[in-house]
Amino acid sequence: MKENILDKDQIQDIRVCGHKLAKVLDTVAKAVKPGVSASELNEIAEKELDKEGIIPSFKNYYVPGVGNYPSSLCVSKNAEIVHGLPTRAKLLFEGDIVSLDIGAGYRGIYTDMAITLPVGHISEDAERLINATKSSLYAAIPFAKAGNHLGDIGAAIETIARQDKLGIVREYVGHGIGTKPHLWPQIPNYGEAGSGPLITEGMALAIEPMLTLKGERTSLSPDGWTVLTHDRAPAAHFEHTVVVIDGMPVIVTQ
Length: 254
Description:
5-stranded antiparallel β-sheet, 4 helices, Creatine Amidinohydrolase
C-alpha cells in the first residue's frame, strides 16, 4: 500500500491532526502585524503545537546537502516564496506580505498547510496576488476526487494564474502526504487536464499553489533554505491537506 493511501483509522488521525494544525496557524496569523519578527511567530507556533499535542514536522527535517531545518514554521516575506527562515532579524513592515507554512504529525500521520497574509495596508497588486493564489487553491481542490488525475489539479491552478497574469512557480510543487511529511506523488501547479497519476480513494495530498507577480524563475538564498523569485517580485503561497473520502476531496486542515 502506498504511504499516502490511508486506511479508516489513519483518516481519523489526519482529520484530528489537520484540525489541530489549523488552530495553531490561526493563532500565529493573528500575531502578524508591523514590527513583529519572524522569530516571534515561530515561538508562538511552537508553543501552540505543544499545547495541541502535535509534533512539528519541519523542525530538524533533513534535506541532503543542506542539513536540518531549524524551525517549526517557515516565514517567507515579499519576494521569498517558500522555506523562509524565521529569524529575529526578519521583521514585518507595513506593506509587506508574509507566507506562513507549517506542518505537524499526530500518531504517525502528517498534515501541512500555508497561508499568505497582508501586513497592514498593501498595494493593489499584492492584494490581487494573494486573492488569486488563494482562489487557485480552492479552484483546484474540487478536482482532487477519485477517478481524476493530478493534471486536473495543476490545470485548475494554472487557469487562475493565467487569468490574473501571474507567474507560476514550477520548481516547487505540492506532494503526497500521510505517514511521512513529504511523499509521492508530486503535484505541479500547472499541467494538462486528464494527465498524470490517477487519484484514488484514501489518497492524502498537500495541494499548494505558489504564484508570483512577474516571472517564474527562482533563486536560493545564501542561507541555503529560503527560495526567492529571481526577479525579486512578490510571491504568495496557500496550501491545504486534502484526503479523498468516499470519492470526494475533504479538506482536513481547517
